[in-house]
Amino acid sequence: MKRRRMIYEGKAKILYEGPEAGTIVQYFKDDTTAFDATKKAVIEGKGVLNNRISEYLFGQLGAIGVPTHFIKRLNMREQLVKEVEIVPLEVVMRNVAAGSLAKRLGLTEGTPLPRSIIEYYYKNDSLHDPWVSEEHITAFGWASPQDLDDMVNLTIRINDFLTGLFLGVGIKLVDFKLEFGRLWENDYMRIVLADEISPDCCRLWDAVTNDKMDKDRFRRDMGGMMEAYSEVARRLGIMPESGQSEMKGPKLVQ
C-alpha cells in the first residue's frame, strides 16, 4: 500500500494528502489538550465520536446551503475534505456567558447574553491565540472586509440552525468555535466552513440540568468526558451501524 504523505499534524487531527488533487484526508486523533496544550491526555475513542458528530453536523449544514469543505466520511476516523486555504482566525459565537468571556468581564457563568456575540481570535499557538478586532484583522491582511462579512453571515446562520437543532434534542448551545477557509475554483474564491464541529469546540449543556457535555469535563477534571460525548451522539441520532468499534464503554461504530 502506498504510504500517504502527511501535510500537517495538529493537537486533535492529522491532515494527509488526498486521493485526488484538491482533496485532503482529515484524521481525528484521540489526543485531548487544554490550556495551550499544557494539559494533555489520550481519551480512547474520542476521535471516532468527533468524526461522526462533525460528519453529521456538516451534513446538516450542507443540506441547508452552508458551503463547507466536507465531502464524505471515509471510515471511523477519517473524512475526505476539499483542500482550502485556512483563514488564520477562530470565529467564536457566544450565546451564554461561559469560559474566557465570563472570566474577562466578571459575568456569572450561565448568564444569557443580551444578544449573541461574535469574537475573533488570531490562530497562533506561540501567542496563545489572542483576541483581535476587525481592525487588526483587516490591517494585517488576515482577512478582507468581504471575507469577514461572509464569515459573520455564515456564523450567524450556523448559530441559528445549530441552536435549534441542539435544543430539539435537549441540549443548550452555549458557545462554539468555527474556522473558515478560502476554496479556490479556477480564478473564483469563496469562503467555506472548514475544520470540525464537535464537543471539542462547542460548549454544550443539558437544557434542563446544565450538565456539561463537552470538553470542559476534561478542562475542569470533571470526568465522564466520553460518556458526555457519547450522549451528544446518541441524542443526535447517530446510531451504530455494524462491525466492531475501537471504543470501550458506549459504542459508536462505522
Give a nutshell description of this structure.
Helices cover 27% and strands 32% of the residues. The chain is α+β, with helices and mostly antiparallel strands and 254 residues long.
Topology, element by element:
Elements: E1 6-9, E2 13-17, E3 23-28, E4 31-34, E5 39-42, H1 46-63, E6 70-73, E7 78-82, E8 85-86, E9 89-96, H2 99-105, E10 112-122, E11 131-132, H3 134-139, H4 145-167, E12 171-185, E13 188-194, E14 202-206, H5 216-219, H6 225-235
Antiparallel strand pairs: 1-2, 2-3, 3-7, 4-5, 6-7, 8-12, 9-10, 9-12, 10-11, 12-13, 12-14
Helix pairs in contact: 1-6
Give a written overview of the molecule.
The chain is of the alpha+beta class and 254 residues long. The chain is 27% helix and 32% strand. The chain folds into 2 domains: 90 residues, Phosphorylase Kinase, domain 1, CATH 3.30.200; 122 residues, ATP-grasp fold, B domain (D-amino Acid Aminotransferase, Chain A, domain 1), CATH 3.30.470.20. It has 6 helices and 14 strands. A hairpin with a 4-residue loop joins strand 4 and strand 5. The C terminus is likely disordered.
The tally of helices reads 6
- Kindly report the CATH topology of the largest domain: D-amino Acid Aminotransferase, Chain A, domain 1
Number of strands: 14
- What structural class results from the helix and strand content? alpha+beta
Secondary structure: helix percent: 25-40%
CATH uppermost class of the largest domain? Alpha Beta
**Gap between N and C termini, in Å?**
22 Å
The CATH homologous superfamily of the largest domain: ATP-grasp fold, B domain
Task: Tell me the CATH architecture of the largest domain.
Answer: 2-Layer Sandwich
Could you give a short account of the major beta sheet?
7 strands, antiparallel
Looking at how many chains there are and whether they match, the oligomeric state comes to: single chain
* Element order: H for helix, E for strand: EEEEEHEEEEHEEHHEEEHH
The shape is globular
Please state the average pLDDT score.
93
Number of domains: 2
Question: What low-confidence regions span 5 or more consecutive residues with pLDDT below 50?
Answer: 241-254
